[in-house]
Write a structure and sequence with these properties.
Helix content is 44%, strand content 15%. By secondary structure, it is an alpha/beta fold. β7 (151-154), α9 and β8 (171-173) form a beta-alpha-beta unit. α3 packs parallel to α4 (67-76) and α4 (67-76) crosses α15. The structure holds 1,3-dihydroxyacetonephosphate and iron/sulfur cluster.
Amino acid sequence: DEEKKQHVARIKQLLEEKDAVLVAHYYTDPEIQALAEETGGCVADSLEMARFGNQHSASTLIVAGVRFMGETAKILTPEKTVLMPTLNAECSLDLGCPADEFTAFCDAHPDHTVVVYANTSAAVKARADWVVTSSIALEIVEHLDSQDKPIIWAPDRHLGAYIEKETGADMVLWQGECVVHDEFSAQALEKMKHLYPDAAILVHPESPASVVKMADAVGSTSQLIKAAQTLPNEKLIVATDKGIFYKMQQMVPEKELVEAPTAGAGATCRSCAHCPWMAMNGLKAIENALENGGEEHEIHVDDTVREKALIPLNRMLNFAA
Ligand code: 13P
Ligand code: SF4
């Protein structure tokens, strides 16, 4: 509508004026993803977001996603101003893994290699040997497993269990979960399969093992978008945040995409899974962040923490390169 058009026009102007670029995650609203694409920014998974921000020449990054993504950008490029539509966009995995408790957990397993998911605070990353995202977690753990050292994995227990099963690595798991993916239900998915017998099932590995077991493809957001293109099926049932449908449908306009059901939703789920924190990213908030910056929008990471967290983050980026 008219108001949205005005915000979009003003944001475009501000991006230029402030030498800023918009970096958005696949779970943000379609209008934000479209704007990022249109203005030379990126729409991506967490690994690609980190890489893009790290390599782009803009002096300001505006990160539409959740806080750990903004923090990662700041850790990698401290010379840049990193803004977010709102600093209240949390993540249940990050919230469920406080740095002090995590440090005690690590101290209790001193001979372990510490691997943390990107969905953590800067302080938790600072305690880690490796940071991984879902698109590279398997390869990195396989690599570490060949060194025969046991591994601490935090915070997502479902992703951890999936990797443990796939690699056979010796892992101690922190018991965190994503409030969105944890809700997918194998029972409800079984029922839905009867309605769409020819559909392939695409699952993000933050989902429970019973759901992952039913998958034809398991992977990060960008890997699921690729799978949608590669799999021959005309219909796809997708177990991840519904924000992904914008890009996925663009890539496979001829296919029918169906949201996987959450517990209790029955066989015909509509708009079930959407991260409440991703949903906080709006056009108005982006405009305000660019216009005013300041403590409501700007990411700061303590220098000592930053320098420590940079090491495992760079390990991941170098491994991925
Ligand atoms: P990826 O985009 O790396 O798959 O991460 C999913 C996620 O939950 C981010 O919040
Ligand atoms: Fe965190 Fe889950 Fe939201 Fe991703 S979808 S930001 S893992 S709560």
